[in-house]
Inverse folding.
């Protein structure tokens, strides 16, 4: 099974198992989350689902919902009132404790806000995303306000990270996020402590958010992970 088919399979499986009519639904970003958006669109079009109120995590997802006719709102809309029943999103890496790195598509800020506003949170990935330790292979994105680029870089280097400003493709200069910020991609030489680092990185002035998703203190926001395997199986890890 090729990777695109695995992504479609795992996305459809999560939607079919979790999404119900009438839900306030967060919709993720990336090449595994978008097939989930398309599955929701198809089920709405066929009448198998109705009354979905969707909150997209990025411009990419907003545009996809617009194309599919999925009704979209913001977390601030009266209909949503700051909380969601369920969010389905992708991830770049997932560790054995269901902690993730997200933000490969640069949408980590709204993705995290929406995750925290969700009663139920599910991540859809193909098996290549499963790792023992986060942050050694796939860089952790750190969204920073442009003016803080160098001071934040120095502070991240002090934490032992190798730091690279994310460059845009088909646009000169850096990536500008959906919220007008830069992204610093950071990698570690030795396995970092993701839970401690998530909090520590966010304490640096100028950092808007980082791509470690380890769950807020005092409340376990560990997602249900749906893992698509090349043999056609979908494994669920809670
Ligand atoms: C975007 C994300 C994506 O969910 C993550 O990068 C995974 O993307 P893909 O499914 O395309 O590998 O966090 O900011």
């Amino acid at each position: 099974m090729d990777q695109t088919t695995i992504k479609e399979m795992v996305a459809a499986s999560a939607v079919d198992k979790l999404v119900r009519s009438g839900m306030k639904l967060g919709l993720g970003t990336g090449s595994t989350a978008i097939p989930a958006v398309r599955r929701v669109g198809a089920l709405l079009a066929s009448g198998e689902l109705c009354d979905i109120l969707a909150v997209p995590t990025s411009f990419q997802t907003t545009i996809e919902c617009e194309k599919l006719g999925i009704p979209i709102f913001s977390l601030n809309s009266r209909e949503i009132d700051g909380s969601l029943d369920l969010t389905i999103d992708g991830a770049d890496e997932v560790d054995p404790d269901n902690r993730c790195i997200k933000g490969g598509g640069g949408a980590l800020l709204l993705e995290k806000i929406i995750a925290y506003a969700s009663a139920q949170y599910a991540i859809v990935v193909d098996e290549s995303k499963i790792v023992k330790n986060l942050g050694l292979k796939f860089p952790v994105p750190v969204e920073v306000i442009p003016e803080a680029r160098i001071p934040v870089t120095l502070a991240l280097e002090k934490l032992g990270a190798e730091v690279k400003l994310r460059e845009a493709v088909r646009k000169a200069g850096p990536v500008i996020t959906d919220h007008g910020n830069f992204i610093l991609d950071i990698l570690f030489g030795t396995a970092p402590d993701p839970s401690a680092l998530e909090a520590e990185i966010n304490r640096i002035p100028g950092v808007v958010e980082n791509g470690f998703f380890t769950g807020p203190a005092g409340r376990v926001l560990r997602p249900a992970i749906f893992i698509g395997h090349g043999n056609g199986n979908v494994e669920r890890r809670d």
